[in-house]
């Protein structure tokens, strides 16, 4: 299927841009996101609730153990102020044979006005091989920060719910060991990847978040407005 | 009062403690100002308790004080007047004391006013009325309790009498435990479809739950037999749409072409007597059978769709409730949807060739599809998109080619899978038959077949051992035959692999060939034990009559002395031929051509042994005896 597209692209040299623009309407490149956090001692209850609410009650929750590295590079477009562009590389520590995931996350929209039920941000991700880190370094990217996320994920239709604990990596230690938790709580994320213009899913997410209400409050979190007490 | 001593009271030097913090630090109250402390003290005075004289003295004192205060605080009287209540109380108290003093003064003279004790009899009458009121109230409360108790008792006896009649709500609760229900305005709607389990069938499985009517329709129905009376009637009625009523199942037949008339005769059985059994079956069974009907319909629908879309060399046919798919030349797989709304008529209909295993496989296949629809793999790392399988996720980074991508999109349809299973079923059955018949035909080497218990729906395995009774340690030929869908694969001991088609004759040839090879090999290893030399052998002898199946095998053995020869020839048609030769012969007559005795050492002149007259239980036994006799003589 995909290869057919490639073939036609090489034949019609004039149209690749058009094809990309048409493809962009189908590619799920918008991430609808709600976030929240829950304390360590309450996470069991939340997991229990999520198991009941999400698909496949019969199976146990799927664990994950990811290592994420964030790289930044200054984008030097002519005539503009150089702006940092950040790219995230994520790999599954517990599935070494799965591809790495390179991800660009855009500026979140919808944090300010209340009309939108969730944060919407553009998200482009692609599976890559493990040499992506060297590739980015060669490009001139600089490792900004890295962390380890470990927790469980759930599915409910198109929605993905992750409950994860964020660990700090100690000085140059390998990810499986030498980690310490960043806080006494778990990060809860409810996200859907969809093509642009499918705002109906945001309402579904809102309704689902309502069902988790007293256990965890999922909301639009504007990262820039959080007071940075840690640093 | 005259001896009263003035006691001066002072506030303590230390301030009062307002709060002690956790680290022991004491937080003091700020000291009161003069006016605040005065107001506080004034509020402590209980005017109702103080005696007249004291009161008077105090009032005077306070009045004086107040006047002094007033003078000092004149300038902010208008805005804040904290002494207002004190003044009012003092004034009224003063008025009262004045009046009391006047009254007392008048009463002392006893001219105008006499003090007399007052009779208080109205208090008595009041207590009597309160007793009456209490009595009445108690009686009212008692009657309320009594009526309540009466009603409870009545309902309890009612419940005890109707113990057999089940409660609608309890039944509803039970229904709710196993089935999906929801309330739409005034009706209760249930859903028995497999949609939550991953089905994508368009037909809905809605049913409605209602409360069963009371006994009103009972007199109309004929009185039930005493045996049937024991069955409790349900307070709950379930109405299932008519297309889901009754009993359905998928019938799978594997039939030869010439037996087709048997199958087509049994189609018009449905709708013979419609819905006579409806209300009196328990709702659980009704719902279960309705769900089964829905499942069978989905299964058949899916199979029919695939049968139309699939491009088979012999196209599959869908006629009404029947799908015909060809498996092997002359053998058809017939899948039928049987849906009967009445009971009992189909049992007499046909003794079925119905294949329960294949029916079960069909159910299993559809359930697998359902399961796959709901159980998608989770992405790793967790930021990856939901949905693509692991192979799809790996396709990009590993630069999969066009062929691999195309291969990923293809999946086997249910019909293809069931046809494969049917083909395997046939191939296995034929293999079994061929092996069994050979085992029956061939007595001399024993053929032992062992079917593996572990197999898959499309692959099974049989191990064949060929041995001779009494000589099983001398020689044993073993081979494994893997039975696939349309072909057999034979793996011999020596690693030779042979592929065969589904035609049973090929397997037959192979087994016969193996039998004769076994005989020759057994003779050779027996000869080794007996000290004989084996000179030559050929498993596919090119001389002699042409065999219809396979080739003849042969071998030549020489005695330890080298003066006797035995030639053995095994052929599928003629059986075993054994010939012997002596070299040199004991008696020599020189002739015209052979003049000297030495030429007799060249051998030749085989004479056939009349094998059926030989002593011995089987071929090897006879050979052993033959060799023994030739060695000794």
Of all chain pairs, the largest interface belongs to: A-B, 36 and 22 residues
User: How far apart lie the N and C ends of chain B?
Assistant: 166 Å
| Main sheet: strands, sense, barrel of chain A | 8 strands, antiparallel, barrel
Distance between the termini of chain A: 49 Å
**Oligomeric state, counting identical vs distinct chains:** heterodimer
Based on DSSP secondary structure assignment, what is the total number of beta strands of chain A? Answer: 9
Percentage of residues in strands of chain A: 35-45%
Calculate the mean pLDDT score of chain B and round it: 80
Shape of chain A: globular
In order across it, which strands form the biggest sheet of chain B? 11-12-13-14-15
Number-wise, the strands of chain B total: 20
Rg calculated over all Cα atoms of chain A: 19 Å
Mean pLDDT reading of chain A: 83
Task: Provide a count of the helices of chain A.
Answer: 5
- Strand percentage of chain B, roughly? 15-25%
Shape of chain B: elongated
The CATH architecture term of chain A is Beta Barrel
Number of domains as seen in the coordinates of chain A: 1
Q: Could you give me the name of the CATH homologous superfamily of chain A?
A: Hypothetical Protein Pfu-838710-001
How would you characterize this protein structure?
The complex is a heterodimer of chains A (231) and B (633). Chain A has one domain (31-223): Hypothetical Protein Pfu-838710-001, CATH 2.40.320. Chain A has an 8-stranded antiparallel beta barrel with strand order 1-5-4-3-2-6-7-9. Chain A is globular and about 50 Å long. With 231 residues, chain A is an alpha+beta fold. Chain A contains 5 helices and 9 strands; from the N terminus they run ααβαββββαββββα. Chain B has 633 residues and is α+β, with helices and mostly antiparallel strands. Chain B starts with 16 loop residues before the first strand and ends with a helix. The model of chain B is unreliable at 75-79, 215-231, 260-277 and 344-349 (pLDDT under 50). Chain B has helices spanning 34-44, 52-73, 84-109, 121-161, 168-178, 260-264, 283-309, 345-349, 356-374, 390-395, 402-409, 414-441, 504-530, 619-632; strands spanning 17-20, 26-28, 180-184, 187-191, 206-211, 236-239, 247-256, 317-319, 322-328, 331-340, 445-451, 460-468, 476-483, 487-492, 497-501, 533-541, 552-558, 564-571, 575-582, 607-608. Helix content of chain B is 39%, strand content 20%. Among the domains of chain B are: 26-69 and 85-109, no CATH class; 169-214 and 234-262 and 274-343 and 352-373, no CATH class; 418-516; 531-587 and 598-632, no CATH class. Chain B is elongated and about 200 Å long. Chain B has 14 helices and 20 strands. In chain B, α13 (504-530) runs parallel beside α14. Chain A binds chain B through residues 1-3, 28, 55-56, 59, 62, 64, 66, 68, 88, 90-92, 94-95, 97-101, 103, 125-129, 149, 153, 155, 158, 160, 162, 164, 193, and chain B through 374-376, 378, 380-386, 390, 393-394, 396-398, 401-402, 405-406, 409. Chain B: Belongs to the Mediator complex subunit 17 family. Chain B: Its main location: nucleus. Chain B: It is found in: Nucleus. Chain B: Keywords: Nucleus, Transcription, Transcription regulation.
């Amino acid at each position: 299927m995909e290869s057919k597209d490639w073939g036609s692209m090489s034949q019609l040299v004039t149209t690749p841009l058009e094809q990309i623009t048409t493809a962009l309407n189908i590619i799920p490149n918008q991430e609808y996101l709600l976030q929240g956090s829950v304390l360590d001692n309450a996470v069991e209850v939340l997991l229990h609730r999520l198991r009941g609410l999400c698909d496949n009650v019969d199976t146990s929750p799927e664990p994950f153990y990811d290592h994420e590295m964030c790289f930044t590079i200054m984008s030097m477009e002519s005539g503009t102020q150089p702006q940092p562009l950040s790219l995230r590389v994520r790999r599954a520590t517990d599935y070494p044979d799965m591809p790495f995931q390179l991800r660009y996350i855009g500026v979140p929209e919808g944090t300010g006005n209340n009309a939108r039920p969730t944060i919407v941000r553009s998200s482009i991700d692609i599976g890559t091989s493990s040499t992506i880190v060297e590739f980015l370094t060669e490009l001139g990217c600089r490792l900004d920060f890295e962390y380890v996320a470990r927790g469980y994920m759930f599915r409910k239709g198109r929605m993905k719910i992750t409950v994860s604990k964020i660990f700090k990596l100690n000085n140059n230690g390998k990810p499986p060991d030498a980690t310490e938790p960043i806080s006494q709580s778990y990060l809860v994320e409810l996200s859907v990847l969809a093509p642009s213009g499918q705002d109906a899913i945001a309402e579904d997410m809102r309704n689902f978040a309502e069902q988790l209400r007293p256990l965890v409050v999922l909301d639009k979190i504007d990262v820039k407005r959080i007071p940075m007490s840690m640093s | 009062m005259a001896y009263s001593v003035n006691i001066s009271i002072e506030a303590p030097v230390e301030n009062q403690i307002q709060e002690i913090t956790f680290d022991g630090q004491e937080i003091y109250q700020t000291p009161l100002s003069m006016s605040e402390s005065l107001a506080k003290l004034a509020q402590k005075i209980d005017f109702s308790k103080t005696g007249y004289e004291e009161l008077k003295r105090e009032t005077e004192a306070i009045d004086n004080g107040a006047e002094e205060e007033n003078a000092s605080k004149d300038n902010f009287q208008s805005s804040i007047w904290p002494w207002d209540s004190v003044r009012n109380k003092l004034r009224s108290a003063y008025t009262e004391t004045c009046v009391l003093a006047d009254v007392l003064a008048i009463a002392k003279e006893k001219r105008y006013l006499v003090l007399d004790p007052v009779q208080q009899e109205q208090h008595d009458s009041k207590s009597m009325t309160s007793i009456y009121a209490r009595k009445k109230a108690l009686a009212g409360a008692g009657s309320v309790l009594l009526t309540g108790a009466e009603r409870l008792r009545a309902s309890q006896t009612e419940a005890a009498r109707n113990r057999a009649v089940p409660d609608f709500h309890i039944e509803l609760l039970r229904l709710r435990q196993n089935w999906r229900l929801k309330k739409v305005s005034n009706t209760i709607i249930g859903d028995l479809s497999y949609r939550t389990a991953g089905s994508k069938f368009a037909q809905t499985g809605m049913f409605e739950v209602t409360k069963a009517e009371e006994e009103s329709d009972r007199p109309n129905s004929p009185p039930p037999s005493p045996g049937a009376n024991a069955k409790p009637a349900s307070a709950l009625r379930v109405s299932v749409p008519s297309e889901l009523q009754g009993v359905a199942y998928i019938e799978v037949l594997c039939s030869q072409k010439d037996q087709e008339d048997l199958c087509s005769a049994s189609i018009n059985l449905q709708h013979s007597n419609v819905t006579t059994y409806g209300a009196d079956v328990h709702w659980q069974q009704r719902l279960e059978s309705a769900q089964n009907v829905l499942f069978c319909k989905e299964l058949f629908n899916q199979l029919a769709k695939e049968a139309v879309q699939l491009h088979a060399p012999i196209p599959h046919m869908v006629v009404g409730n029947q799908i015909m798919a060809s498996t092997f030349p002359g053998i058809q797989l017939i899948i039928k949807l049987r849906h009967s709304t009445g009971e009992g008529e189909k049992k007499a209909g046909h003794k079925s060739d119905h294949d329960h295993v294949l029916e079960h496989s069909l159910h299993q296949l559809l359930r697998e599809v359902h399961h796959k629809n709901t159980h998608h793999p989770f992405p790793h790392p967790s930021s990856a998109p939901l949905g693509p399988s692991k192979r799809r996720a790996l396709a990009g980074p590993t630069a999969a080619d066009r062929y691999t991508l195309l291969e990923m999109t293809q999946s086997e349809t249910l019909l293809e899978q069931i046809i494969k299973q049917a083909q395997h079923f046939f191939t296995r059955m034929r293999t079994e038959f061929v092996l069994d018949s050979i085992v029956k035909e061939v007595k001399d080497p024993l053929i032992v077949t062992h079917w593996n218990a572990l197999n898959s729906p499309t692959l099974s395995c049989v191990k064949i051992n060929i041995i001779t009774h009494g000589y099983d340690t001398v020689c044993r030929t073993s081979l494994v035959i893997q039975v696939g869908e349309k072909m057999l694969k034979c793996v011999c001991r020596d690693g030779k692999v042979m592929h065969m088609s589904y035609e049973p004759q090929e397997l037959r040839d192979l087994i016969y060939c193996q039998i004769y090879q076994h005989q020759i090999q057994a003779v050779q290893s027996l000869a080794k034990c007996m000290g004989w030399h084996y000179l030559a052998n050929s498993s596919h002898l090119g001389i002699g009559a042409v065999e219809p199946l396979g080739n003849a095998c042969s071998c030549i053995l020489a005695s330890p002395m080298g003066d006797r020869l035995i030639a053995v020839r095994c052929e599928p048609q003629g059986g075993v031929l054994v010939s012997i030769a002596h070299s040199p012969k004991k008696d020599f007559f020189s002739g015209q051509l052979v003049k000297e005795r030495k030429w007799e050492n060249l051998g030749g002149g085989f004479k056939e042994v009349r094998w059926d007259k030989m002593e011995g239980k089987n071929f090897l036994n006879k050979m052993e005896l033959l060799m023994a006799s030739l060695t000794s003589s």
